[in-house]
Structures
1.
Amino acid sequence: MITPWEVEGVVDYRRLLEEFGISPFQDLLSAIPNPHRLMTRGVIFGHRDYGRIIEAMKYCKDFAVMSGFMPSGAIHFGHKMTMDEIIWHQKIGAKAFVAIADMEAHLVRGLSYEKTKEIGMNYVKSIIALGLEKNALIYFQSKNVNVKNLAYELSAEVNLNEMRAIYGFTGETQIAKAFVSLIQSADILQPQLSDFNGPKPVVVPVGVDQDPHLRLTRDLASRINLFSLEKINKGYRIRSKIEKNLDRVAKLGFEFRRFAGHIDLFGSHEEIEKALRDLEIELGGYAFISPSSIYHKFTTGLTGGKMSSSKPESYISLLDEPEVAVKKLRNALTGGRNTAEEQRKLGGEPEKCVVFELYIYHLVESDEELKRIEEDCRSGKMLCGACKKLASELIVEFLKEHKERRDEAEGKLGDFNLIC
Ligand code: TRP
Ligand code: SF4
């Protein structure tokens, strides 16, 4: 039985979790104070180390949220989902970072920087229109010196064999692909630079297709650090790339045992971590905390299959005129039956319906209303025509409001920390 809280394709997503060692998000749900609807409805299905973020929320510690958008085409509801996640985390206290991946769009998709600027600014306006607040950093990768410098440093920590294992690169792969991957790792680690108050938990909301970047970044983060920590009974085993750093570790005031090549410290894990981080910063290191991530399900294209920015009929853009959106919705694939009569008898199949997916992901905030729609669909009481009419009304309302908010956002751009 599939409910709005366990939507389509569950089996495949489970397999994905197992294959890549991503943890199920479900297990953390009860620990999150006021979870977002994407969380309670199972749209966000997996995570890495999100416990760190919950901890930071709970104890009001410094933490950040960051994600990026490639300015290569229309902004659609798939992008809105990531934007909603960034905004939600900002509202509960995260410092927000938004990357406009113009270097990636330029190098991988071949767009001119003039074009990526134009498209990128549309993303910026939309995320502000959706509710991003002023204390965020929004930047175009190509204009961010910190990110470019950090990517250069990170390049010393990975070799081509590892890139091949993670991304499936071959001998023919352009180095540009490796380059943009390192830029993305730098995007993810930037919130922990001293310009932004140093190491902190960072959560990256993304589609699961971005997981390779997260795996690479997590490796790079620990490799570039001066110290590595391995949990042992009642403490940590500490190693360092530079052996003499361990002499400093011995003087941190913890009970210790020194060996050739490592030192064991005994005491509270949290206190040792903090002391090591402070020491590493003092010694000029980064002391990065491994970034966390959350994974949402893909948005289905309106005509079935994957949503693609090269197929306008497969998505509704946040910039579509209402009439255009309504027309696309009219042609959308539903979970309805061949004839009205059949549907009255058998009911619809919301789990196969992209209109219902829109309700779950974006259009219906109230769980009760969502449940009612689902029941009316399943029982055959409501047919797809009427249902699409309701969805059209909700979409049109949203698009009109979004357009107004975007116009307002234009005037507010100057208040934002914008590197462009
Ligand atoms: N590569 C991402 C995409 O294609 C965009 C992106 C750039 C990103 N930098 C990022 C995503 C940092 C997450 C974190 O959509
Ligand atoms: Fe989808 Fe609505 Fe038709 Fe059900 S009634 S299949 S939810 S469009």
2.
Amino acid sequence: MSIAYLNGTWQPLEDARISPLDRGFLFADGVYEVIPVYAGKAFRLAEHLDRLDHSLSAIQLAAPLSRTGWENLLNELVQRNEGGNLSVYLQITRGAPAKRDHAFPAADTPATVFAMVSPMAPAPSATPDTTTGAAAVTAEDTRWLRCDIKSVSLLPNILLRQYAVSQGAIEAILLRDGVATEGSASNLFVVRDGTVITPPKSPLILGGITRDLILELCRAHAVPCAEANVSEAELRDADELWVTSSTRELVPVVRLDDQAIGDGRPGPVWRKVAGLYTDFKRSLDPSA
Ligand code: PDD
């Protein structure tokens, strides 16, 4: 049974309770992070906490804990759940004031802080030789204009992901004004003529921690890469297509809207960069 953290107390997840007046419940007025843990160690923790700071300040919510406070909380969460490979979910909302009101509550309303873990399945990048690749579909990006905030307000993402699932696909790749942004819960990479390309950071995408690490690894290992807009035509005509996230690492997409991408198999650049990713994890902890 997993142990969760809620507002200063530790308890079995199934016993954790929040008020129906919580603004996360009423308004989705909150932000979150998903942080992978390998062999009991949080991966790219500083980067995840930087993004959390960005999300909190973007919604004008004072950080309820210091940087060290977050680190201690997450370390204790992992220890109480006996380490291993996990994903940590951390959510902060604008608390549960006595009255439902769209405007912010009094500044001294305590934020709600909730954290839990889930088991993490091995990612396809860990087994490049047996990975066959996934199917994705395209969909119009119906989200708001502040996708850089990791907001718990995910209804558009949920509807888009469900559309993908209903089509037998694992992800919806989103198009805004004919330009690819990202997946419903992932960032997007294409490979064209040997160059790895991902859309530039902007308010229209979530700045993925996995995305940033992939760019870092490409630069460190002389894999040509660029941050550039990807048109719908370039997306469909890519040699390789990947989606990336903390929980799924790098997933090769081999079919898009029922058309093969490249030769319909995970490509050589994916194989190379997935290998760099796995090596990087192992360099931090050989058992990861
Ligand atoms: N989602 N874009 C969106 C819209 C996302 O929801 C995510 C991750 C990403 C990838 O970000 P990162 O590499 O930092 O995980 C990009 C998480 C995993 C989720 O909501 O569960």
